[in-house]
Write a structure and sequence with these properties.
With about 450 residues, this protein is mostly helical. It has one domain. About 80% of the residues lie in helices and about 0% in strands. It is built from 18 helices and no strands. It starts with a helix and ends in a 10-residue tail after the last helix.
């Protein structure tokens, strides 16, 4: 029975086999990662006060804004590297890898230099709307966070290379190892130190750096040695190909960042840092759906690139139909999660956090809405047809914050209004994505639909 089940999961042609293996591995890894994540939430709340935990969540979201400042080079590399692998152009692939590492290294240094220059003129405790007692801790923490971020900016490219070569589960594995390390150190902090947002922040900065550094050394000295970054293979002429596509991804993802990552910051200022906690708790709970979407959809980005490069449209259509079935399954899971939400909130928040049912319903709708969108966004991103997204992204991002304020304050919808604004601004994918996909796959896409 076990042999039959495994054969069914990894069956099909070579591309399907790779995708299904990645789904299987990611399912195991991310399931473990989520379980440990729920344990981590409880330990974080135990270690910090409700207010301080809300501040740390807000700082984490704030730093995530800068994660896209590679100007889309990571995603540009992902598509170009996949194309080179599909065509057997290893030397060209190495040039793309080397050039992207060098370029992002320069960007990281510039970002860190700018931050150091402005850091001492910013009162970060006011930015995050917290008490003056935390002023010194937050000032020091921000230096540490930005320094580690600049290093991670470069080191995380190993995940991009592995994902482009149809091994995205490694990215999840790195996150799992990092979480295990963090959990062990957090357990030690709870037993030996008083509550400190500085210690907690340092912990979550160090662990991913250690894991990513180890991954770069391991893979580039073994299986991926022929693609290892080298100064001799830096060709800045190659960066044009990465940038032309990458800058579109950059604008799209920057807009996505504004829509999806400003929520905690807005809540902190429109309401209070304490209100971030119930919002974050509901988001982390329903992130099970987002994680499941990542498990099923992520392997197909590079697979779509490979299939489209080889004109294998029949395979693409078959996979899209299967992803629709996955979405129906996730919809059922989403409904069950709503029914179980109160029990889970009490378990995770230890009865200290009250999450309104209206917030739960809106969060449930939000994640399943975005799950449907991801089916088509993965295809469009994989084949590089993102120009429409590029043009829509900026107006959507600009609209998000004022619309959030309008729904949350003017209409007095509270936290639910924040999510409603994000749903409205992110409606391109689920509403227009299927139409563009059908035009492209049928060969009838013209003009901007095919760009």
């Amino acid at each position: 029975m076990i042999k039959s089940l495994v054969n069914k999961i990894v069956g099909g042609n070579s591309r399907s086999k790779l995708a299904k293996k990645n789904i299987l591995f990611s399912l195991i890894i991310k399931s473990t990662w989520m379980v440990l994540g729920f344990i981590t939430i409880r330990m974080n709340i135990d270690y910090l006060s409700k207010e301080t935990y809300g501040i740390w969540v807000t700082i984490s979201s704030f730093i995530a804004w800068f994660d896209f400042l590679d100007f889309g080079l990571g995603n540009g590399l992902r598509n170009k590297f996949s194309e080179c692998i599909a065509k057997g152009e290893d030397d060209k692939a190495k040039e793309y890898v080397s050039t992207t590492y060098a370029t992002i290294g320069v960007i990281s240094f510039i970002l860190l230099f700018i931050f150091v220059g402005v850091h001492f003129f910013v009162e970060w405790y006011k930015v995050f709307n917290t008490s003056i007692e935390l002023k010194d801790s937050i000032q020091l923490l921000m230096i540490f966070v930005f320094t580690s971020f600049s290093l991670r900016f470069v080191l995380k490219l190993i995940s991009t290379v592995l994902t482009a070569n149809h091994q995205p589960f490694y990215k999840d594995l790195f996150r799992l190892i990092s979480r295990i390390i963090s959990l062990g150190i957090l357990f030690f902090l709870i037993r030996t130190t008083d509550s400190s947002i500085l210690y907690l922040g340092m912990l979550y900065c160090i662990s991913p750096l250690v894991v990513l550094l180890g991954a770069n050394i391991f893979f580039y000295s073994s299986k991926y040695k022929k693609y290892a970054p080298s100064f001799k293979f830096v060709r800045f002429s190659r960066i044009n190909g990465v940038v032309n596509l990458g800058i579109k991804f950059f604008v799209i993802h920057l807009a996505t960042l504004v829509m999806f990552s400003t929520d905690n910051f807005l809540i902190s200022h429109l309401f209070s840092p304490e209100d971030v906690t119930p919002y974050d708790l509901s988001y982390k709970y329903f992130r099970i759906i987002i994680t499941a979407v990542g498990i099923f959809m992520t392997p197909f980005w590079s697979a779509f690139t490979d299939a489209y490069t080889k004109n294998d449209n029949d395979w693409i259509k078959k996979i899209i139909k299967k992803l629709h079935l996955v979405w129906v399954f996730l919809l059922v899971v989403d409904v069950v999660m709503v029914l179980c939400s109160d029990w889970v909130y009490n378990l995770l928040g230890k009865g200290k956090v009250d999450v309104p049912f209206s917030l739960t319903l809106m969060m449930a709708f939000y994640v399943i809405y975005m799950a449907f969108s991801s089916i088509y966004m993965n295809f469009l991103n994989g084949v590089g047809k993102v120009k429409i997204q590029f043009y829509i992204a900026i107006p959507a991002a600009l609209l998000n914050i004022p619309l959030s304020i309008f729904f949350a304050k003017t209409l007095d919808l509270g936290l639910m209004g924040i999510i409603m604004a994000t749903i409205v601004c992110a409606s391109f994918g689920p509403l227009f994505g299927p139409y563009q996909y059908k035009k492209i796959i049928s060969g009838k896409a013209k003009g901007i639909l095919n760009e």
